[in-house]
Specification:
The longest helix is centred in the C-terminal third of the chain and has 29 residues, at about 115-145. By secondary structure, the chain is α+β, with helices and mostly antiparallel strands. It is globular. It has a 6-stranded antiparallel beta sheet with strand order 1-2-3-4-6-5. The chain has one domain: Yope Regulator, Chain: A. The protein is built from 4 helices and 6 strands; from the N terminus they run H-E-E-E-E-H-H-E-E-H. The protein has helices at about 5-15, 70-80, 85-90, 115-145; strands at about 25-30, 35, 45-50, 55-65, 95-100, 105-110. Helix 1 packs across helix 4 (about 115-145) and helix 2 (about 70-80) packs across helix 4 (about 115-145).
Length: about 150
């Protein structure tokens, strides 16, 4: 399975496995990554290959990439206040941090394996778990930021 095939198949695998609640849509797609979003494409879940210089890994998480750096920061601050609970649910590898261009993110990296149907299911289930834990926090924090 090529990377582009893997990333193209990932949204359906995730969307088909989500419990009631978030109604994610496929966002941007590249050969190295894919985005899914609920109501605002600038605030999206993303799976993308980490640059090779940083290791053979995939980043899986929730990105806040609006042009409004202050809004991105408010969302990050809201998530930071919940990191003890988030880490208790998702594990200690989950981080919340400032990123490039005034963007912010809540994410983890996982080992990159050979793209295959089995690995697709592993990544899809991890993203489903991340969405299940982070989406209620996102809705709460977003509501507090408006």
């Amino acid at each position: 399975m090529r990377s582009s095939e893997f990333m193209a198949a990932l949204p359906d695998a995730v969307i088909g496995s989500l419990p009631d609640g978030p109604r994610l849509r496929r966002g941007r797609l590249w050969s190295f990554g894919v985005q899914l979003y609920d109501d605002e494409p600038h605030f999206h879940y993303e799976v993308a290959r980490v640059p090779v210089r940083l290791g053979d890994r995939l980043e899986v998480g929730l990105h806040f990439e609006s042009k409004n750096a202050a809004a991105n920061r408010r969302l990050l601050d809201g998530f930071t206040a919940h990191m003890i609970e988030i880490k208790a649910e998702l594990g200690e590898d989950v981080e919340a941090e400032l990123w490039d261009k005034g963007w912010t993110k809540v994410y983890e990296t996982i080992a990159l394996e050979t793209y295959s149907p089995d690995y697709l299911q592993v990544v899809a289930q991890r993203l489903v778990r991340i969405v299940t834990v982070l989406h209620p926090v996102y809705l709460e924090v977003r509501g507090n930021c408006q």
